[in-house]
Amino acid sequence: MTEPLIDVKNVTKLFEIGGGLFGKKRYICAVDNVSFSIKDGESLALVGESGCGKSTLGRLTLALLKPTSGQILFKGKDVWNMNSAEFKEFRRNAQLIHQDPYDALNPMRTVFQSLAPPLTYYKIVSNKKELMEKAAELLELVGLVPPEDFLKRYPSRLSGGQMQRIAIARAISVNPKFLVADEAVSMLDASLRIEILDLLLNLKKKFNMACFFITHDFGVVRYFAKGGRVMVMYLGSIVEIGPTDDVVLKPLHPYTKALIASVPVPDPKITRSRPLPPLRSLEVPNLTEVPSGCKFHPRCPYAKKICAEKIPELKKVSKNRFVACHLY
Amino acid sequence: MVVDLREPLVRIRGLTVEFRVPRGILRAVDEVDLDILRGEILGLAGESGCGKSVLAHALIKQVDPNGYIKSGEVIFEGRDVYSLSEEELRRFRWKDVAIIFQAAQNSLNPVLRVVDHMIDTVLAHEKTSGNDEIIKRSIDLLKAVHLDADRVLKLYPHELSGGMKQRVLSAMSLLLKPKLLILDEPTSALDVLTQKYFLKLIRDIHEKTGITMLFITHELGTIAEIADRVAIMYLGNIVEIGSVEDIFYDPKHPYTSALINSIPSIVGDVDKVKPIPGPVPDPVFPPPGCRFHPRCPFAFDRCSKEKPKLRKIEGERLVACHLYDSKPSSNLTAS
User: Fold this and answer.
1) Which terminus has fewer CB within 10 Å in chain A: N or C?
2) Measured between CA atoms, how close is A57 to chain B, in angstroms?
């Protein structure tokens, strides 16, 4: 067994809310005792609805947030116990692509000025000439040709798709081993989405990067994490992990089932013949009053007595498939 | 009484809407012809910035301050909407046509209870109704959208979830029994599970009341689920109109088929998904001729020179593409 690239062990993240001067402090649990690992070059997709904690989990794996408890290991080393040289190396190796390319680029900097700092900081280049060459090479890699046309442009002169390409170029410029793409294509139009996904897939393969792909769209997951794995999150907990096609085509957890049954399909006959998922309630519980036991039990059509009492553990039900549900 | 169900409720002809932007004039809607038939759910689909939302708002003469309706007409049940007086227009909006917006959740007044919203809405348009009658009507409608009516009426907007707000607004929009309901990206802000139930609700309302609907979205999956007929829009032009089956199973316009093939879905073969080639053109300086021609794999000479007109090619199908011109070859030699 090779050592995983990223190993997330029992990670919990609490956020303090409200309180005020004399009020009682309250916490919401954005990520609740989550464990998983990502291997070298692997695609792992994380799916969940807005507010389920998936972005927080992404930021935890990048050490942009410190977990309240638990550990994040990079190549076997706890990222929060690294010395500064090790941590700098981890930072170089773990890069993020944001959802909103408009926010990711500084509007006052040209494309070149956005690309240059990481290259010089991590000493990827040693002089001005190499820097210019490397910047041009990166733009070619992400399909912005000829590079001279783009280097001196400001973000206001770029389309959304072009901006996302620049953001990708900057992320891969420092030769990372691990890429977190947080809803990286959800702001883009249908016609551009596949182009950017294809670009990410090609780069991932070319540089053998592992990719943690966060999205709410199962269709996109099937395209991007084909042959990889998908993980489903609900209210801070992982409810199911398995190979992408297995989970999408044969979901096991009642929440995953409901989610997949609700996804609209661009085929009138199929989509209209799919019944409504049998949910007991449509209301997503408030994060400050998370249900006892299985967090999904108040909405779950199959809930039993035990579901309100005991938190289900993520257990192996068949080869490569894990589900946190008392039905299994 | 015999009513021809296929008689158009709304007839849009030659509608052009432009915006003044720093770089020049942006023509968001370009000489659009469109009929909305009585009792149908017409889906209007296209990518962001294609002008679908501008078109829907122009229908009730609502354009942002930097924009203007350049030409064209909207005939609603024989009435010319653009020649209505301010007062007539005010009554026309909401009483004849109601709109549910994308960010509809934010259109509720935070200091008013649901019941106050209902009463205000009715009183603004019908001076005669008594409060009891309005409340009774509200309860019926709230029940129709599967809400606990007696409880919800007393709640303030912050006490409602996103899905509940959307349902309250749906009920509100039906209060005055409008003839046309415009839904502008109503599901985009909802999570997937709520979305599915909301679409079911819209279908139920449609079945019960027979109200005509214009449903605008960029999500083709949603269109497949809800629409009877579909209009596809690209850079201000309607490129194809047909029944939902025709559009999805036998698309005629190259843009329609490219768009459908670009969507990875949870069913079907993901290997067949492919992007639409080429960059999205700058809407301020759109390509000449057919606006899709620089990205179209079937483009020929004429496509860059002459703008194709939307016309009937068979049954109820309308396409704006030179591939379906009856005599493309003779015209080719002529140009």
Assistant:
1) N
2) 19
